[in-house]
Every structure is written in structure tokens, then in C-alpha cells.
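STRUCTURE:
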């Protein structure tokens, strides 16, 4: 597939990123300077140029972003893989109306690329399931996503 480069999300990606979704987040490790990759799911795109996400306030992700603002989200969608590069900033050290100590991060999108290798497509997108109390997980997910949407 030809590489597509844009400075913002397509309408399709915007729609997909308006609900909880599995994505891979790459930051730059403060300790080693190497890429640091994490799987996250509390992600919300309020508009085509911005993505918000929530992580545990004690996560090394927060420390990495405070040290180096460059981040990349890898999103599996529409039969492909998209690399969304941007600059992150801490929007809220502690999110309100959420029982856990979570930090909200805002990414200003600089570039969106289709990075799937030529002549292929994703047949089945990655899926995950919660391995703890499903009712508690559902309640927490709703609280976190609502806080991201109200930011």
C-alpha cells in the first residue's frame, strides 16, 4: 500500500478514536533515550488535530513525556496500521471524577502515515479483553472516557 501522509486524522480515524480503543504508544525513555512502547486503551480524539489519553499518574509514560514531548501512536484500523506522530503535553496531572490517580495527556497531531507494508492488509484487528471484574472495569472505563470527552 502506498504511504499516505496527512497532518490530521481522516474522518474515519477520528470516528474510530472516539471510543475506547487498543493502540500502541511510543515515547522516548528518559532513562535510556530508546523508544519505549506501551499498549493503552483510554484514548479519545475530540477533533482531527488532537488526541487525548489517560494513564496511571505513576506510569513511566508520564515521566518520559515530561522529558521529551515527541510521541507516536500506532493504530490498527481500516485494514491497515497508522502511525500518528505528534507532541504531547500533560493536560491534567490528576483527572477529576475518576477514582484512580490518572494523568490526562494531550497530543497535538503533526503527521499521520499509513505504515502497512506493501501488498498487504490487516485481516483481523487486535482485540483485548479485561481480565479483572468486568462490572468494575466497565464502570471505570465509562468514567475515564467521560472525563476525556469533557476535557
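SEQUENCE:
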Amino acid at each position: 500500500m502506498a504511504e499516505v501522509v496527512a497532518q490530521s486524522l481522516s474522518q474515519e480515524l477520528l470516528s474510530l478514536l472516539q471510543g475506547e480503543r487498543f493502540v500502541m504508544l511510543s515515547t522516548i525513555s528518559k532513562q535510556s533515550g530508546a523508544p519505549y512502547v506501551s499498549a493503552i486503551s483510554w484514548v479519545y480524539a475530540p477533533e482531527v488535530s488532537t488526541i487525548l489519553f489517560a494513564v496511571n499518574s505513576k506510569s513511566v509514560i508520564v515521566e518520559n513525556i515530561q522529558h521529551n514531548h515527541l510521541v507516536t501512536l500506532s493504530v490498527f484500523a481500516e485494514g491497515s496500521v497508522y502511525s500518528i506522530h505528534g507532541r504531547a503535553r500533560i493536560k491534567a496531572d490528576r483527572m477529576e471524577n475518576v477514582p484512580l490517580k490518572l494523568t490526562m495527556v494531550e497530543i497535538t497531531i503533526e503527521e499521520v502515515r499509513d505504515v502497512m507494508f506493501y501488498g498487504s492488509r490487516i485481516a483481523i484487528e487486535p482485540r483485548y479483553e479485561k481480565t479483572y471484574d468486568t462490572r468494575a472495569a466497565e464502570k471505570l472505563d465509562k468514567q475515564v472516557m467521560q472525563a476525556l470527552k469533557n476535557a
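REMARK: DSSP finds three helices and eight strands in the chain.
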